[in-house]
Amino acid sequence: MSKVEAKKEKIIQAVAFYMISEGLADVGLRKLAAVGGTSDRMLIYYFGTKDGLIGEVLQMIAGGLSAQLDMVLGPHQRDADQLLNEVLALKEVPEFISVIRLWFEVVGLAVRENEPYAAYAKEIGKTWIEWIESRLPVEQRDQTMATFAEIEGRLMLYLIGIEG
User: Fold this and answer.
1) Is 116:54 a contact under the CB 8 Å cutoff?
2) Rounded to an integer, what distance in angstroms lies between the CA atom of residue 82 and that of residue 37?
3) Handedness of CA 83, 85, 86, 92 (dihedral sign)
4) CATH no. for residue 65?
5) In the chain, how many domains are there?
6) Terminus-to-terminus CA distance in the chain, angstroms?
7) Distance, CA of 116 to CA of 55 (rounded, Å)
8) 0.85 exceeded by pTM
9) Which domain covers residue 120, as residue numbers?
10) What is the separation of C-alpha 129 from the centre of its chain, rounded to a whole number of angstroms?
11) What sign for the dihedral angle of Cα 131, 19, 39, 51?
């Protein structure tokens, strides 16, 4: 890995940690530069735009979520109800819930057609759907979208204080 790539990776990781813990409310260029331990000019040099940085960070977080789910739950297939229950049980894991909070922030901006978040939400949503589909047995793959919707809906209700 080149020195530039190593620096970019360090910035992406620092900004990802910040966005997961603090959200998207304060993601101005200067703030992100400070979080990344660099200047706003260097962020532009490395990522082209603030949106370019945010896109790389969100992609890294999404990929990391799939990998973490596999580490915790295992990559094996299971029926839709079992998968739903296993994912929902993760709401007790603070790191998982922090990522889900960020996901819902991105979705909120996406439904307002706020770019680049609309494009990121679509990509990340597809990643979630593919992950769910690959964990369901072939005969239940027609339940992928319903399982995704139920996971999201129940996590959203949990986050706003309505559990059922």
Assistant:
1) yes
2) 43
3) positive
4) 1.10.357.10
5) 1
6) 48
7) 8
8) yes
9) 3-159
10) 13
11) positive
Per-residue pLDDT at 163:
79
User: Is residue 132 within 8 Å of residue 125, measured between CB atoms?
Assistant: no
Tokens of 65: 């979520």
CA 61 to chain centre: 5
Whether residue 164 lies inside any domain: the answer is no
pLDDT digits (tens, 9 = 90+) for 86-132: 999 999 999 999 999 999 999 999 999 998 899 999 989 999 999 99
Of the pLDDT bands very low, low, confident and very high (cuts 50, 70, 90), residue 164 is low
Average pLDDT, the chain: 94
- Angle, helices 40-47/3-22, rounded to nearest 10 degrees: 110
**Do residues 88 and 147 lie in contact, with contact meaning Cβ atoms separated by under 8 Å?**
no
Q: Two tokens at 5?
A: 């790539």
Instruction: Tell me how far apart the alpha carbons of residues 157 and 51 are, in angstroms, rounded to a whole number.
Output: 29
User: What pLDDT does residue 111 have?
Assistant: 96
Amino acid at 70: D
Condensed to tens digits (0 to 9), the pLDDT of residues 24-66 reads: 998 999 999 999 999 999 999 999 999 999 999 998 998 888 8
